[in-house]
């Protein structure tokens, strides 16, 4: 890390957490990873949970290491994480139970319960959020009548919960609040009337704050553990919101793919799109930094390959990610395709068998090797990105000239090249650590070190490596034919996927 002001970014993903130490000299942002730790769910008798107490311990360990490495000259710390999951606190501020994991099966049938109380059209026109069984709304409906919900006095999303333990402040940062499907995107406030009609207790929702809000110093006993008293800053706490801050784009004619366990594919807009067509296409309108809207679709992402590798590992096969990608590059191209968003691929389990089963029930030959399976998944993801980008342009009237891939998937050269070929658009890949960069930049913004979103992206362009991939015209017909095949598999009404999502099967 170079000189200048130092900040700490805590970035929590569905598989691992990382703590970064960043330095900003007014021109460039430098950063280094100082701590990485696994984020593993725990299955208890009542379902699948996050081990949030262990997560908090690892977060504090990472912050302490960063403070030590910076010689104590750290201005602030900010936390981002995945969306939709939350912790419940009682009136004494005590955690009611370990937060549930969004892949737990308890939300089966909850969308139907919600629609029996409020029409789906009204839920969408108020919240603008994609219908997915993992959403906070359906998690809360699954808890109706439980002792945990009756005891609860405050709901905090995962980054807000950890910030509360550090600073003692209970607030809800807006970008993550919008993902709950209980937030009014026009009024930029909790959808209280909707909550009442759905049977969700309005009392538990905290004050909503903007990214860049200073939450206060770390508590005394926490400061002793960390080795310094730090200012806690609410960043764009939904990890995708932080990643989009660090998209190194110029202008507005770009699409982004925030690629990791999930792929978030979409456009940045100044206002939400709440039309019936957008609802039928199941697009989401999530809050972004600077009151922007992230108009996007969630695509299953690299989760499918991650779960395949876990299964192979349990079977005793050591399949490295690098080796798998090298082998996939040599496998036959576009031999078979899946719909990555098929509900069968959502829960954990024997993912290779699910991919083979999908191919069998759609009349395709099953992949015989890990390389063939990996190629099938990557090509299917690239084609799915094309569908989302094309549909987003239709729904908004915007024209996309470049696709920016950020997040861990930016390091996957094969996937990035396939994305360029599938979409027919130039791809700019990087930065891989966009979420951490966005987190750090919002902290710098909170202290007046950098101004607008455009200025922040200019800092990213000066600070990060970006790799260019151009579409190969020689394979255009082959990719177009594959796109038609996948579209037929997805059975989207009006050339878009069935917007009535099915409940996901039990793990």
Descriptive report:
This protein has 507 residues and is an alpha/beta fold. It has three domains: 5-237, ATPase, nucleotide binding domain (Nucleotidyltransferase, domain 5), CATH 3.30.420.40; 240-302 and 380-490, ATPase, nucleotide binding domain (Nucleotidyltransferase, domain 5); 303-377, no CATH class. The protein is built from 19 helices and 21 strands. It has helices at 52-69, 110-117, 120-127, 136-141, 147-151, 158-167, 174-177, 192-198, 220-226, 239-245, 276-280, 303-314, 321-330, 351-361, 370-396, 413-423, 434-446, 453-463, 476-490; strands at 5-12, 16-24, 29-38, 41-44, 47-50, 74-80, 86-89, 154-157, 172-173, 183-184, 189-190, 208-209, 213-217, 231-234, 254-259, 263-269, 284-287, 293-299, 402-406, 427-429, 467-469. The strands form six sheets. A seven-stranded mixed sheet has the order 17-18-16-15-19-20-21, with helices on both faces. The protein has a six-stranded mixed sheet with strand order 3-2-1-6-14-13, with helices on both faces. Strands 4-5 form a two-stranded antiparallel ribbon. It is globular. The two termini are 43 Å apart. Residues 493-507 have low confidence and may be disordered.
């Amino acid at each position: 890390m170079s000189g200048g002001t130092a900040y700490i970014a805590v970035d929590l993903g569905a598989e691992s957490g990382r703590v970064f130490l960043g330095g900003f000299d007014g021109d460039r942002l430098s950063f280094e990873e100082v701590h990485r730790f696994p984020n593993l769910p725990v299955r208890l008798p009542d379902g699948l949970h996050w081990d949030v107490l262990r997560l908090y311990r690892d977060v504090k360990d990472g912050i302490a290491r960063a403070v030590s490495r910076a010689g104590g000259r750290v201005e602030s710390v900010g936390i981002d994480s995945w969306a939709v999951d939350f912790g419940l606190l009682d009136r004494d501020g005590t955690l009611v139970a370990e937060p549930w994991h969004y892949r737990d099966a308890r939300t089966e049938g909850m969308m139907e319960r919600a629609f029996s109380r409020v029409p789906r059209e009204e839920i969408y026109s108020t919240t603008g959020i994609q219908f997915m069984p993992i959403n906070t709304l359906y998690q809360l409906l699954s808890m109706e009548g439980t002792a945990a919900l009756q005891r609860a006095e405050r709901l905090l999303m995962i980054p807000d919960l950890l910030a509360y333990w550090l600073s003692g402040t209970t607030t809800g940062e807006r970008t993550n609040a919008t993902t709950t499907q209980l937030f009014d995107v026009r009024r930029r406030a909790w959808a209280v009337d909707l909550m009442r009609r759905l049977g969700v207790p309005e009392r538990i929702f905290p004050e909503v704050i903007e990214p860049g809000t200073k939450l206060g110093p770390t508590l005394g006993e926490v400061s002793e553990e960390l080795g310094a008293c730090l200012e806690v800053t609410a960043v764009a706490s939904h990890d995708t919101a932080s990643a989009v801050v660090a998209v190194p784009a110029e202008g507005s004619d770009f699409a982004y793919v925030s690629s990791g366990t999930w792929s978030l594919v979409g456009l940045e807009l100044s206002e939400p799109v709440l039309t019936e067509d957008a609802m039928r296409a199941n697009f989401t309108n999530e809050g972004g930094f600077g009151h922007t809207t992230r108009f996007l679709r969630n695509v299953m992402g690299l989760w499918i390959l991650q779960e395949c590798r876990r299964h192979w590992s349990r079977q005793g096969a050591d399949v490295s990610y690098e080796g798998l990608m090298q082998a996939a590059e040599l496998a036959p191209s576009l031999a078979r395709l899946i719909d990555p968003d098929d509900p069968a691929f959502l829960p954990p389990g024997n993912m290779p068998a699910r991919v083979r089963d999908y191919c069998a029930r759609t009349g395709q030959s099953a992949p015989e090797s890990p390389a063939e399976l990996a190629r099938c998944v990557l090509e299917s993801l690239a084609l799915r990105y094309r569908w989302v980008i094309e549909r987003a342009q239709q729904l908004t009237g915007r024209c996309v000239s470049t696709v920016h891939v950020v997040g861990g998937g930016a390091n996957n050269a094969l996937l990035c090249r396939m994305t360029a070929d599938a979409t027919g658009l130039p791809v700019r890949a990087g930065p891989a650590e966009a979420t951490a960069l966005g987190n750090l930049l919002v902290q710098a913004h909170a202290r007046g070190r950098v101004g607008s979103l455009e200025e922040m992206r200019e800092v990213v362009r000066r600070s990060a490596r970006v790799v260019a991939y151009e579409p190969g015209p020689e394979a255009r017909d082959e990719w177009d034919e594959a796109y038609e095949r996948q579209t037929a598999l997805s059975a989207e009404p009006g050339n878009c996927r069935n917007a009535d999502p099915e409940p996901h099967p039990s793990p």
